[in-house]
Design a protein that fits this description.
Strand order of the largest sheet: 1-2-3-4-5-6-8-7
Distance between the termini: 24 Å
CATH architecture: 3-Layer(aba) Sandwich
CATH class: Alpha Beta
Largest sheet: 8 strands, mixed
CATH superfamily: Gcn5-related N-acetyltransferase (GNAT)
Strand content: 25-35%
Shape: globular
Number of domains: 1
Helix content: 25-40%
Number of helices: 5
Number of strands: 8
Length: 171
């Protein structure tokens, strides 16, 4: 599966793409600037591959996808994005881009595309997004994409205080 945006291609993360983009994913997760807002900080190769395999399994078992973000030609790696399953059963949406692609509108482009895809393909009433309370750029992206703030509390996985947003699907 490939989703197209105005500037990007989102290619589904499966066993093949995980193998092909392993080094890119490991490098992305090893970047201190990229992982500044992650409570666990940077990730090792083993941690990265374990987490990416979780995303692959989620797609294979429940058809909830994550994607590799590439340029329109499909040759340059920009980051990753997609959906995850929270401990309470809600579906979350997120994205991670190399810092050289920050501030260009790509995060907004990606999130709008993911929410549009979810509207048509995920049988859930809402999609959740969240970011640490001091990560204002991510909060602005969620707001630009029509997600609405609904609470501030500790995230369910790491315990970091976050601003939570939701996208309520239309009927």
């Amino acid at each position: 599966m490939i989703l197209k945006t105005h500037h990007l291609l989102l290619q589904v993360l499966n066993t093949e793409t995980l193998t092909k983009y392993k080094k890119d994913l490991v490098d992305l997760n090893a970047d201190e600037d990229v992982r500044r807002y992650y409570p666990t900080g940077t990730a090792t190769e083993i941690q990265t591959m374990e987490r990416m395999q979780e995303f692959v399994n989620l797609y294979e078992n429940q058809r909830i996808p994550s994607f590799i973000v590439l340029d329109q030609s499909g040759t340059n790696f920009y980051g990753r994005c997609g959906f995850g399953l929270l401990p309470d059963g809600h579906i979350e949406v997120g994205y991670v881009l190399h810092k050289k692609f920050w501030g260009k509108g790509y995060a907004t482009e990606i999130l709008k595309t993911l929410l549009s895809w979810a509207q048509e393909n995920l049988d859930v009433p809402q999609i959740i997004g969240y970011a640490p309370i001091d990560h204002k750029a991510s909060q602005r992206v969620m707001e630009k994409c029509g997600m609405t703030y609904f609470k501030t509390e500790k995230d369910p996985i790491y315990g970091t205080v976050c601003a939570f947003y939701q996208y309520v699907k239309s009927l």
